[in-house]
Design a protein that fits this description.
About 85% of the residues lie in helices and about 0% in strands.
């Protein structure tokens, strides 16, 4: 039974396909008949204008043409002036380069004529070094003077101490000789 239904479905599908083809052919034929029978229609969006409308459109177009011609003249003048300005700029740039070269040459000539001085920085450094040396010498002199004073003071102190020691030693000797008991002993 299932086979019979499957066979019937296949046969029905073939009939449907053939009928669809015939339907498409009939639709195409009916379309061609319609196109042939209809009169030619104007293109969509086109209008018929009155004489006044044509005159107005004509004057508007003439004005547009005038404006375009004026703009073309202005554009041509601008391109001509642009090219002339470019030529002038090129000439000016050339003159500028020549002037720069001559200025450089003159600067070199002037620098060659000017006697060269030692840089002031070195002079300042030399002055500072000289000041430092003077200060060092003064410090050394002061220290030497202090040492001399200190050595004189020390020699005086030492001589006083020595003389005191000598006196004490003499007294101690006298004390021993004189038989004094309890005399001080001097440490050597």
């Amino acid at each position: 039974m299932l086979r019979q239904f499957a066979d019937q479905i296949k046969a029905d599908n073939k009939r449907i396909e053939s009928l669809e083809k015939k339907c498409r052919q009939l639709e195409a034929a009916s379309f061609l008949i319609k196109v042939q029978n209809e009169p030619a229609q104007p293109i969509s969006g086109s209008k018929s204008f009155s004489e006044k409308d044509y005159k107005k459109i004509h004057t508007d177009l003439l004005e547009i043409k005038k404006v375009l011609l004026e703009e073309q003249k202005v554009a041509a003048d601008l391109t001509a002036s642009k090219s002339s300005l470019k030529k002038k700029n090129d000439a000016l740039e050339y003159n500028i380069t020549i002037l720069k070269q001559s200025i450089k040459e003159k600067m070199v000539a002037i620098e060659a004529k000017i006697p060269k001085k030692k840089p002031e920085i070195k002079e300042d450094v030399k002055k500072e070094d000289a000041k430092k040396e003077v200060v060092k010498k003064e410090v050394v002199k002061k220290e030497a003077g202090k040492k001399k004073k200190n050595s004189k003071k020390n020699s005086k102190k030492n001589s006083k101490k020595n003389s005191k020691k000598g006196k004490k030693a003499k007294k101690a000797k006298k004390g021993k000789k004189g038989g004094k008991k309890g005399g001080k002993k001097v440490a050597k």
